[in-house]
Write a structure and sequence with these properties.
Length: 530
């Protein structure tokens, strides 16, 4: 059994336990559906890519251990690509469109330059595009030069938190490499792991086959052999393309990918499920600095409120877990919308109204996760029918859905958003009461929320990793996307002092950028003001 599964021994469930355990493959495949949306691809693109990878592995007669690496690395290869969506949108407008169109550029000097110029400040007024074009070579080029390395780092952190082992993590790291050495770390040729080379090729083949058909997929793989792709693997693919691409147009590949798991079907117990859902929550919240820590905070409050209302333990646990995944669908909406400081257009509001539905659809494939999706989809529904995505009213909004909705509303009001500053606790409570009087929220649930939050007393903290209170304060602002200059202005200290603090924070926590700093902050409950 490969070391990735051995690393999961803490999470393995006892056979016959009640409720039935969730398979690790279900969780990883569910995460891949979020990756699809963030890449601008339809759901199950990454699953299709992984099926192609496994078929190539069969042609090469890979051993079971290598097939297992191929399986998990294939499903998680691009999960880190949304973790700097805030920065992508800052420079290129619609971050999802930017990543979607990158698939069709071979990343040579000419095609890469064309891709950047085409998308720079896309969708903005001409004067804004000109200004962005002038400052990007100075301010944005360094960030863009590190983008693949950043994506790999956050992908590696997710794989580590899921206990997938060094073999899978190393393959994920090298999935961002190209045959010609123009990848994240400049590795080239056969120095790149075979599993990583296979995943890279399968991704290209899956995308072009779906959009342009069999002939275009074969032609593209052949054309990229020797540059982005391993030429021998490209030739192998072209020789066997009919078999490798056979049946990819079926409605769903969910059952097929679960059946294709190369080793014994590893499962996670209830503690392991909580851990995995928290991982999903943290990576979802990296979508925007405005969301950092939001899902964990909602889940904690919703679970406590469910208990205060006297809901049974099973239901309270489901509400808490639904809170962890309730915003999974955010990955399918561009940061050009989430981070917009002004009013949204009608079209943009409609895209926002879709994100609970996307959450439900992504969780629907797994029977255990579908139960959470049925609660999560209601977190923006309101008793008077003014909510979304379905405009439910009255008793059609379940009690778990009402609890989650109030917890989400209260938590959101306490956080900064691009169009408004955070509300105080008193202001947020007053707003909840106003919504009860208007008939939108359940009065009993709101009363329970107020009771829970008013009982919480400030507690003295010992900061992790040797951080000081000032460093924690700066870390929080750093995760919000503020620059050193903006942090200095906010705290009324010298920019040089902030820079020194940031260096100490990175050295102590092991973080290297906003995304990895955000993950550390969420894992250690450092998101709220110290």
């Amino acid at each position: 059994m490969h070391q990735g599964v051995l690393a999961l021994r803490r999470l393995v469930a006892v056979a016959g336990s009640d409720p039935p355990p969730v398979r690790l493959a279900e969780l990883v495949a569910t995460i891949s559906l979020g990756t699809d949306l963030g890449l601008g691809q339809p759901m199950q693109h990454v699953i299709r890519q992984t099926i192609i990878s496994l078929r190539i592995g069969d042609l090469l007669a890979l051993e079971t251990r290598e097939r297992a690496v191929l399986y998990y690395a294939g499903l998680l290869a691009w999960v880190g690509c949304h973790t700097d969506a805030y920065e992508q949108a800052k420079w290129f407008g619609d971050d999802i469109a930017f990543k979607r169109d990158a698939m069709f550029a071979d990343q040579g000097v000419v095609t890469l330059a064309r891709h950047l110029v085409t998308h720079l400040a896309a969708g903005r007024p001409l004067p804004d595009r000109i200004r962005t074009g002038m400052v990007f070579p100075v301010q944005g080029a360094r960030w863009f030069g590190q983008i693949l390395h950043s994506h790999w780092q956050t992908t590696d952190l997710l794989a580590a938190r899921l206990g997938l082992g060094e073999d899978v993590r190393q393959s994920l790291k090298e999935s961002y490499e190209r045959w010609d050495g123009r990848g994240a770390m400049g590795m080239r040729g056969e120095s790149i792991r075979l599993t990583s080379r296979i995943v890279y090729l399968a991704d290209v083949a899956a995308a072009f086959e779906r959009l342009a058909g069999y002939d275009e997929a074969v032609a593209t793989v052949r054309a990229r052999g020797g540059s982005a792709l391993d030429p021998a693997l490209a030739e192998l693919f072209c020789d066997h393309a009919r078999d490798l691409l056979d049946g990819l147009d079926c409605p769903s590949h969910w059952d097929a990918i679960l059946e294709a798991e190369p080793e014994l079907a590893a499962t996670v117990d209830e503690e392991g499920l909580d851990h995995a859902l928290a991982v999903i929550a943290d990576f979802t919240d990296l979508k925007s600095p405005y969301f950092i820590g939001h899902s964990r905070a909602v889940a904690t409050l919703a679970g406590e409120v469910a208990g205060a209302l006297g809901l049974d333990e099973t239901t309270a646990t489901a509400v808490r877990r639904a809170g962890l995944v309730h915003d999974f669908g955010r990955l399918g909406v561009s940061n050009a919308i989430w981070d917009k400081p002004g009013s949204l257009t009608v079209s943009e509001r409609e895209r926002v109204r879709m994100h609970p539905y996307l959450t439900e659809r992504m969780l629907a494939f797994s029977p255990r996760l579908a139960e959470l999706g049925a609660i999560a989809v209601q977190h923006h529904e309101r008793l008077d029918g003014s909510g979304y995505p379905r405009g439910l009213s009255g008793s059609a909004v379940s009690l778990p859905g009402r609890v989650l909705g109030v917890a989400d509303s209260y938590t959101t009001m306490l956080a900064d958003r691009p169009h408004r500053p955070a509300k105080s606790r008193g202001e947020a409570i007053a707003s909840l009461r106003d919504q009860v009087r208007a008939g939108a929220l359940d009065g009993e649930v709101v009363a329970a929320v107020i009771g829970v939050v008013e009982e919480k007393a400030p507690r003295k903290r010992t900061w992790p990793a040797g951080l000081t209170a000032r460093e924690v304060e700066i870390l929080r602002l750093l995760t919000l996307g503020l620059t050193n200059r903006e942090i200095a202005e906010r705290l009324t200290i010298a920019r040089k002092t902030v820079g020194a603090h940031v260096e100490h924070i990175y050295a102590k926590t092991g973080a290297t950028n906003r995304a990895t700093a955000g993950l550390f902050a969420m894992q250690h409950d450092l998101v709220t003001p110290p």
